[in-house]
Design a protein that fits this description.
7 helices, 171 residues, ATP binding, 12% strand, EC 2.7.1.12, 5-stranded parallel β-sheet, Shikimate/glucono_kinase, alpha/beta, P-loop_NTPase
């Protein structure tokens, strides 16, 4: 099957939609990190307050455990905004690959406006972009622009992974 994939990015970037489509294409299990939040985190975000690292630690531990349990393949949608959060996930599953859904504030704001009722209010988008640390050169992953169709994003990811795998096998 391969390594598990974390579809990451700010709220409204399409993590859940892309993650579900990617998991279906790869025929592996899918999980949404939002489902791993304790009720206190959801209440805090619903009230318009950003989570802090203390709030995120146990949540990331649960996600890391899911990745470890699916080390042979699975897709998790998770913001994973900071390098240290991704490091925490890698401690559980060193082979995880990150698919970073990148996009401008304008594109993401437009996407967020189309999902009323989500517990993450659009007002927190600026704090998400302030927190975001894009993938570093030391991280295994791919950045893909979200301003295209879900199928195009999944196709691009699959093509890049196939290319990377072929290059590694030919070394």
């Amino acid at each position: 099957m391969g390594s598990p994939v974390v579809v990451m990015g700010v709220s409204g970037s399409g993590k859940s939609t892309v993650g579900a489509a990617l998991a279906q294409r790869m025929r592996v299990p899918f999980a949404d990190a939002d489902d791993f939040h304790p009720s206190a985190n959801i209440a805090k975000m619903s009230a318009g307050h950003a989570l802090d690292d203390d709030d995120r630690f146990p949540w990331l531990e649960s996600i890391g455990q899911w990745l470890a349990d699916h080390h042979a393949g699975g897709v998790m949608s998770c913001s994973a905004l900071k390098h240290k959060y991704r490091d925490q996930l890698r401690q559980h599953c060193p082979g995880v690959i990150f698919l970073y859904l990148s996009g401008s504030v304008e594109v993401i704001r437009r996407r967020q406006a189309s999902r009323p009722g989500h517990f993450m209010p659009a007002a927190l988008l600026d704090s998400q972009f302030a927190t975001l640390e894009p993938l570093g050169p030391d991280e295994v992953g791919i950045a893909i622009d979200v301003d295209q169709s879900i199928d195009a994003i999944v196709d691009e990811y699959m093509a890049q992974i196939d290319t990377d795998t072929t290059e590694q096998e030919n070394r």
